[in-house]
Amino acid sequence: MIRAVVWGENVHERENPIVAGVYPKGLHGCIADALNAADGISATTATLQEPEHGLPQSRLDETDVLLWWGHAAHGDVSDEVVERVVEAVWGGMGLILLHSSHFAKVFKRLMGTPCNLTWREAGERERLWVSARQHPIARGLPDHFELEHEEMYGEPFAVPEPLETVFISWFQGGEVFRSGLTYRRGAGKVFYFRPGHETYPTYFDPNIRRVLVNATRWAHNPEARQSSDWDAPNIDVSDALEPLEHRGAKLHKEGDAGFQ
Ligand code: ZN
Is pLDDT of 53 > 90? Predict the structure, then answer.
């Protein structure tokens, strides 16, 4: 079983009756239901409002794939939890960032870039094209599919060049966007997936739910944390394997203020 945790900011669902009407169980609840309907995935939820945002170290230690939906409260996520999540990704936990989580602290920290984009909330049609037909995340999908109402995200998307672009979106207003991007950070697989504006029933769409399931399976790294090979130690190797004459000045020696 792949142990997935769906993290939800859980703000719009509680404060906006339109969103609560579309997602009575919250966006995180809807996404978890989609994953639990698939073979081999066991999904639970965590929210911003829980102690440690529902993500204490003990929980991350038992998480294979973390899915993240945030929008209005990125700044309320504690830096301590952000570092904990980033370290878990380096150790091999999969991470899937959904929609407005392009501005989540965890994503920006892992990307190292502004992650800016253009946007418009006009309820327009989005057409997603599968740009990597052989990719496991696209398994079982048609070559393109549509969402009748979505928020528009447009290029340029200020992220590092991805390993793979699995989807490209076209919007009714004319913009395009790289809407399914894969990365590797340490031993962890990272996937950004664009659709999922909170006022539209996007996460009930069968194609979207298939992507969520496929991406969760793809992001699972069964060897995560099972091997110290994943560790990249920061250590002094003054004692070389081969005979070596030490030459020149030394900046670092024991007792120096800057010694490390
Ligand atoms: Zn949105």
Answer: yes
Distance, CA of 189 to CA of 94 (rounded, Å): 5
Q: How far is CA 62 from the centre of its chain?
A: 17
DSSP code per residue over 92-126: T-EEEEEGGGGG-HHHHHHH-S----EEEEEEEEE
pLDDT on residue 260: 46
Centre of ligand 1 from the C-alpha of residue 179, in Å = 13
Q: Is 75 exposed, middle or buried (0-12, 13-18, 19+ CB in 10 A)?
A: exposed
Evaluate whether residue 207 is within a structural domain: yes
What does the pLDDT read at residue 165? Answer: 98
CATH number at residue 64: 3.40.50.880
pLDDT band at 257 (very low <50, low <70, confident <90, very high): low
Rounded to whole angstroms, how far apart are CA atoms 47 and 68?
10
Q: Which has the higher per-residue pLDDT, 87 or 254?
A: 87
60 belongs to a structural domain:
yes
Total domains in the chain come to 1
Q: How far is the CA of 251 from the centre of ligand 1 (A)?
A: 51
Model-level pTM? 0.92
| Structural domain of 26 | 2-112+179-230
Alpha carbon of 119 to ligand 1 centroid (Å): 9
Å from CA of 194 to ligand 1 middle? 9
* Residue 140 belongs to some domain of the structure: no
Q: What is the CA(87)–ligand 1 centre distance, in A?
A: 27
**53 within a domain of the structure (yes/no):** yes
100 CA → ligand 1 middle, Å? 6
Output the CA 213–ligand 1 centroid distance in Å: 21
Q: Which residues have CB less than 5 Å away from ligand 1 (the ion)?
A: 100, 151, 197
Distance (Å) from CA 136 to ligand 1 centroid: 26
